[in-house]
Amino acid sequence: MLAALDQAVNRKLCSRNIDQKMLMLKKRIHEMKM
Predict the structure, then answer these.
(1) Global pTM?
(2) Which residue, 7, 10, 25, 34, is the most exposed by fewest CB within 10 angstroms?
(3) DSSP code for 1
(4) Going by C-beta distance under 8 Å and a sequence separation of 6 or more, which residues neighbour residue 5?
(5) Which long-range contacts link 11-17 to residues 24+ away (Cβ below 8 Å)?
């Protein structure tokens, strides 16, 4: 039970980190275009 919960939390953290990286990439690309 706890292991499954840990995996779910880790997945959420990973997806959140990926979202943040994507946002940073989009900002950089936008700044380059300006």
Answers:
(1) 0.58
(2) 34
(3) -
(4) none
(5) none
Alpha-carbon Rg of the chain, whole angstroms?
A: 15
**Residue among 34, 32, 10, 11 at smallest CA distance from 24:** 32
Q: What angle do CA 29, 12, 5 make, to 5 degrees?
A: 170
> How many whole angstroms from its chain centre is CA 23?
9
Distances (CA, A) of 18 to 5, 7, 8, 15, 27: 20, 16, 15, 5, 14
